[in-house]
Write a structure and sequence with these properties.
about 675 residues, alpha+beta, Clc chloride channel, CBS-domain, 4 domains, three-stranded mixed sheet
């Protein structure tokens, strides 16, 4: 009976899958509605923990300040212990601020996140924030929403390419539902989580973000997260002050990042049971909170005080330092929570302090301290996350204040530019880099990074000697399909290049110029790029941005070949196609599957091969797979002792093969067989 009821639903689902756009819209709406409910439920759970932990209805700074000192210490300590036990025993992914884990899942695991992360992150982060942990709720809700989107996608058996988009839908729904900010939620997902503004990804994410906002507004109301007085730019000269704030924000953001990871390293070195570390971290937070209860929890009440100009600048600078310390202790000790709200807190205090000083010095030509606090919020977020567009729009949506948009843009852009010069990785991607994961390595722009020039270069080169006459050169151009002739000396060393554009004006009367013009008079030497056979094609792509002709390949100083731009583009398209195909196959890869082949265009084969025993413990560069066997490793899949699978797309030469690895290899059929023989 059950099977008879399910059969029509399966047929309907299969039919909808054939209409990709309609299907993705429907799934995006479902994820948005569920994500919105999770966001509302998460906020309610935090309030419940607040009431239990602090025995208070409204959670206010005055009430917390009135509590005895031992309560302020024991409450976050107990919360830290509970959070540590949940993370250690139930889901290790729930540790920390969550966003890097989602980025890693999108980049390396095709968007697959364990369903249990939804519950583990919600409970762990809710207890951490509600009991006083100095973290925010945006990181957890991003991970909760992303895990929800991934779970729904896996349940519906959606392919890997679209599963990544559904993870973005969940992240957008979480942000939108938490902050009542649909535009910022969508941009956060595409700018930070996916890094792809493609229409096919962006449209479902926007729909999911809107659906989550509708749910949030239904239960929580339609109002901004912060109520701020009206601010505006007083005089154009005030922009210099906002530019200075952007510079300070970059420096503070870099300090925040480095202190955060220094504390993580310090706590990891402690020879303690992980839940004891979180208990210790919670106790330290409580000690700070005895004198500064402002650092407890999300800190929105303190932010509102800064936005209304009610705090002294000296006190705000103190809060900048102590909030950085408190967040670093909470996350470093193993707590669970986000860094977005703490970034807003730090920015508000820094901006408020700067604004107070500036307004005191120039009271008639500058806005009040609150305006600078508002701009500082966006500047710190932009500098820490390297996402200025998201920072600008989320501040606008959190406050509903548009008149401060020009100073906000200037400070955010300056802060981002300086922060990226000081630290190439953001607060999110640095955590992955410390694990040896470079998520940008797997993006389409870098697919040529591991393809050497020798695989694409042409060896049929038309050369000329410096003494060749004009008619001889014209004849070579007629017979040769390229747009350049390479002038070499007797030893085969490149002297210069003659292009068709240089020859064309002389073709009107070549006989008259035959005795007057030789190759040496025409060629251009030293103004063209050259590459080596072992250089990466990604280097050639950089040259092609400004140099449109064929690129000569030199080996030991002699002309060995030539790279045609169209050959590079063709290889780029092939690599992107193979990368997408590899991603689609990744979910079906199994270590015990032996060898499976899929024939591709041009006589190449994509094969799934268990790593030979002789490769284990050696790096890709040591084995030299490409040169020794004539194949390219598109992806490596590995399962650890706990059964957790990880994907490494386009692994670098330093990747060390491990027992149980399965590689997705691309190459001629004979080369694939030769690699199999190594087993």
């Amino acid at each position: 009976m059950t099977e008879a009821l399910l059969r029509p639903l399966r047929r309907l689902h299969a039919g909808l899958q054939q209409t990709e756009q309609v299907y993705m819209v429907l799934v995006a709406v479902l994820i948005g509605l569920c994500g919105g409910l999770c966001a509302v439920g998460f906020r309610q759970f935090i309030q419940l923990v607040n009431r239990i932990a602090w025995r208070a209805g409204p959670y206010t700074l005055d009430y917390i300040a009135s509590l005895p000192w031992w309560w302020k210490v024991l409450t976050p300590a107990a919360g830290g212990l509970i959070v540590g036990l949940i993370i250690h025993r139930f889901a290790r992914e729930a540790k920390g601020h969550g966003v890097p884990e989602v980025m890693e899942a999108v980049a390396l695991r095709g968007g697959r996140i364990r369903p249990r992360v939804v519950l583990a992150k919600l409970v762990a982060s809710g207890i951490s924030i509600g009991s006083g942990g100095s973290v925010g709720r945006e990181g957890p809700i991003v991970q909760i929403g992303s895990a929800l989107g991934s779970t729904i996608g896996q349940w519906l058996r959606i392919d890997q390419r679209r599963l990544r988009t559904l993870v973005g839908c969940g992240a957008a729904a979480g942000i939108a539902g938490t902050f009542n900010a649909p535009v910022a939620g969508a941009l956060f997902a595409v700018e930070i989580i996916l890094g792809d503004f493609g229409v096919s990804q962006f449209s479902p994410i926007v729909i999911s973000s809107v659906a989550a906002t509708v749910v949030s507004q239904h239960y929580l109301g339609d109002f901004p997260a912060f109520e701020v007085p009206a601010y505006s730019l007083v005089e154009a000269s005030e922009l210099f002050a906002y530019a200075g704030l952007g510079i300070l924000a970059a420096v503070v953001a870099i300090g925040f990042i480095r202190v955060l990871y220094a504390f993580e390293d310090g706590f990891d070195r402690l020879p303690l049971y992980p839940p004891i570390r979180t208990l210790l971290g919670g106790a330290l937070i409580g000690v700070i909170g005895i004198w500064l209860p402002h650092i407890f929890g999300v800190g929105y009440e303190a932010i509102n005080e800064a936005l209304h100009g009610r705090l002294a600048w000296e006190f705000m600078l103190l809060l900048v330092v102590m909030k950085i310390l408190a967040v670093s202790i909470t996350i470093g000790s193993g707590g669970s929570g986000g860094i977005f709200a703490p970034s807003l807190f730090i920015g508000a205090m820094l901006g408020g302090a700067v604004g107070t000083v500036v307004h005191t010095l120039w009271p008639t030509s500058t806005a009040g301290a609150g305006a600078y606090a508002l701009v500082g919020m966006g500047a710190i977020v932009a500098a820490a996350t390297h996402a200025p567009i998201t920072a600008i729009l989320i501040i606008f949506e959190l406050t509903g204040e548009y008149r401060i948009i020009l100073p906000l843009m200037i400070s955010c852009i300056i802060a981002t530019l300086l922060a990226t010069r000081l630290e190439s990785a953001s607060i999110y991607t640095l955590k992955l880099l410390r694990r040896g994961i470079d998520i940008h390595r797997g993006k389409a722009l870098n697919v040529l990074q591991h393809v050497p020039v020798r695989e694409v270069m042409r060896r049929d080169i038309v050369t000329a000697s410096p003494e060749d006459g004009l008619l001889s050169l014209i004849s070579k151009f007629i017979d040769y399909p390229g747009s350049a002739i390479f002038v070499t000396d007797e030893a085969g060393r490149l002297d210069g290049i003659i292009t068709a554009d240089q020859i064309r004006p002389m073709m009107k009367d070549p006989a008259a110029l035959e005795a007057l013009v030789i190759a040496e008079d025409l060629y251009v030497g030293g103004e063209h790029p050259t590459v080596q056979p072992d250089d990466s094609l990604s280097d050639v792509m950089k040259y092609l941005e400004s140099y449109r002709g064929e690129v000569p390949v030199l080996e030991d100083g002699r002309l060995a070949g030539v790279i045609w731009p169209e050959d590079v583009i063709e290889r780029y398209n092939t690599e992107v196609f193979m990368r997408d195909m590899a991603g689609s196959m990744a979910q079906t890869m199994r270590p015990e599957s032996g060898v499976r082949r899929i024939r591709s265009a041009g006589g190449t084969v994509v094969a799934e091969i268990a790593v030979p025993r002789s490769f284990v413990g050696r790096s890709i560069a040591d084995v030299d797979v490409r040169r020794q066997y004539g194949v390219s490793v598109l992806m490596v899949k590995h399962a650890d002792g706990n059964g957790q699978e990880s994907l490494t797309p386009s692994p670098a030469g330093g990747y060390v093969f491990r027992d149980g690895d399965v590689v997705l290899a691309l190459g001629p059929d004979e080369a694939i067989r030769r690699l199999q023989m190594a087993m």
